[in-house]
Amino acid sequence: MELLIDRYQRRINYLRVSVTDRCNLRCIYCMPPEGIKPLGHEDILRFEEIEEIVRYSIDWGIDKVRITGGEPLVRKGVVYLVEILANLKGVEDLSMTTNGILLRDYVRDLKNAGLQRINISLDSLDANKFHRITKVGRLSLVLDGIEEALKRGLEPVKINVVVMKGINDDEVLDFAKMSLDRPLHIRFIEYMPFCDRKGAKLIAKTQKSSFEFVPTSIIRERLRELGELIPAEVRGAGPAKSFRFEKSLGTIGFITPMSEHFCATCNRLRLTADGKLYPCLFSDYGIDIKTLLRTGAGYREIKELFEEALKNKPEKHFIKGNDQVMSKIGG
Ligand code: SAM
Ligand code: SF4
Questions:
Q1: Which domains does the chain have, with CATH numbers?
Q2: Ligand number nearest to the C-alpha of 123
Q3: Residue 122 in contact with residue 95, Cβ under 8 Å?
Q4: pLDDT of 328
Q5: Is ligand 1 within 6 A of the CB of residue 194?
Q6: Closest residue CA from atom 11 of ligand 1
Q7: Are 13 and 65 in contact (CB under 8 A)?
Q8: Among 145, 148, 307, 312, which residue has the least CB neighbours within 10 Å?
Q9: Ligand 1 site, residue 232, Cβ cutoff 6 A
Q10: Which tens digits make up the pLDDT trace of 59-89?
Q11: Ligand 1 centroid vs 22 CA: distance in angstroms?
């Protein structure tokens, strides 16, 4: 087995697969209010193409796969894709990131298909504010999805909270409290300002509002009210630093792309819905796998493209302009 090791001796074993660029929400930090021009049907990787890429990459040491988007649950037949990937020998960890809007009715099938665990994005516990942040979302649907995920044993259930100054930072205590008596893993993520190539904040610009990230140190300070944070272990915690309160059933995680980047331990590549391989969330360009695949390329040629991605994986990111939005590159 030839492992994927980049120029900085980081071993890559994690592939994030975006299955669609479409989304049923318009989160203020992720998408312009009018949405983005969707990819055409033909431009999207077919399930058997995703399967082929993942199958090859297992041979090079990928053993962890996350299905993401856009919103993965709006991709027709996504449960079938879960089943395909879950049945690939070598995929040890199969997870999904979703906004939870459609989740309740999918949980049972996802679990039966072999999904192991789930991350649900939720930025406010206040129905009105949730609607303002997502433009169109109903909070109760996400809460129902979370309950169902707990009930059906998708384990662990993580809640991703992007913290923005003046928008939802007043809710960090309420979110943290959710971890006290439920096995919920709350992860506070520093908002990342995506910029265009000229450096203007891409999304904030279109929202006619500006918001800023809240450093994790400030969030931690606020959480002291609930007690001391003790280091904890959570499956698949990735770059999150995890803690719990003394008697809590769940945990608290901090993801700090802004105040303390975690590039030195980055183990991931990203495959976009239109079949481009991105070495880093902030890479200028993705390596086109789809075109080659559709012209009959196989194991060896695809391996070369993975190697090219490794060569282009930067030592660390500088949150800089690449004209990308998260929903397109797959958060
Ligand atoms: N639609 C799904 C969801 O929202 O969970 C999956 C895709 S979304 C792009 C993946 C994650 O990226 C979400 O947890 C979202 O909150 C996060 N995200 C999107 N834009 C972000 C930004 N500018 N800064 C930090 N996190 C962001
Ligand atoms: Fe959609 Fe997820 Fe982006 Fe929100 S964060 S707009 S749910 S892709």
A1: 4-329 (3.20.20.70)
A2: 1
A3: no
A4: 64
A5: yes
A6: 331
A7: no
A8: 307
A9: no
A10: 999 999 999 999 999 999 999 999 999 999 9
A11: 13
